[in-house]
Fold HD-like signal output (HDOD) protein.
Amino acid sequence: MARIEPELLENLVPLRELTPEALQALAGEVEIEEVPAKTVIFRRGGADGYARYVLSGTVVLVDGDNARRTMTGTGNAGVAPEPLARTAPFDSHAVAGTDVKLIRLSAARIQQLLASSRLPEAEVAEVSPEGGDGDALFYRLFDDLMNDRLELPSMPDIAVRVQQAIAEHEAGPADLARILQSDPVIAARLIQAANGAAFGGQRDVDALQPAITRLGLSTTREVVTAIALKAVFHSSNPLVNKRMVELWMHSSLVAATSQVLARKLSGFAPDRALLAGLVHDIGVIPMLTNAASYPALVKDPGLLEETIREYRGQVGSMILRRWNFPEDLIAVPLAAEDWMREVDAPGGDYGDLVMTAQVQTMAGGPAMPAADAAAVPAISETSAYRRLGLEELGITDSASIMQEARGEIAEAQRLLIA
């Protein structure tokens, strides 16, 4: 048995419900199962008594309707948080898409530890289902979230393929070009980005592979993910879709502003800042798409907005963790509107960057709901103002980055909304 640190298990479903002592015990019982690419891990209808989590590599799950989804682990940086199978008998086939390493645990042992050592539900002690309508709704939503009954969006397939190619196969520009040529829209946006002010050379590029070479693999990955995310901000319900469009416009403006800020500060990658800005409100999406399941939300739009404000950060971080985003971006949804947050990050972090972009866009943008407007402080009052050294850049309550860099911000936003 390989030794796995308990910290690697604490965010896994349902292991996160265990006490630290139970996690410590379980970590000592982990087996690492190595499976070659294109090997069947288990078949639908079978059962072998194990729970498996993807430690590294990619596993493809195929259900009875031949619908496919992938689960990817990136080693210590991010174990896929869900088990490959939630039920026995298994409801899907599981096939190794690449060489994979799986964390394997006895399902019976997990249930034994859950039964004897579930964490006390301190997190919901103030949100009792016996309270008012709002409290009851919060409790139900929180319970669905914690038990993975809430439908969460999936990472766009093209972004997953690019990330996997770079992470697992040491892909070069030609390899990425072959993947991306299947999506003409994203290919065109990449060429547009390569010819933009931030990356443009003496002459424009007009083909995909030279564009990827100019951008570099890391920037290509972040830009592809950012552009592909637009598909997530969509609903077949016209009313919900209207709100999704508004959310995308807001997120793209925050992303563009974050990118421009990152270019003016040391220690930040502009392309990563763009992605951080785009996903800061990703938690709103399941709030909107699942609203119809909660009658109280349907009857009371004000309660829906209150629910969104309460949970969007937590849900957003959960989505990004499921998508195997890095920790510095997983923290962004929780930080984006925590104006007075204190964090041990000299020079600031991406949460600070996005928080600053939020304040700047809210102060210089269209009218917003009164409850939101009242909660937004002056930029100089935020904790990020000091950490980022914004005063030295000349950014003050009266001198906004929105005014100084309007053209740069507009160019970055056009890449996302065109």
Notes: The chain has four domains: 6-116, 120-146, 150-232, 233-417. The first helix runs from residue 20 to 27. DSSP finds 20 helices and six strands in the chain. The radius of gyration is 22 Å.
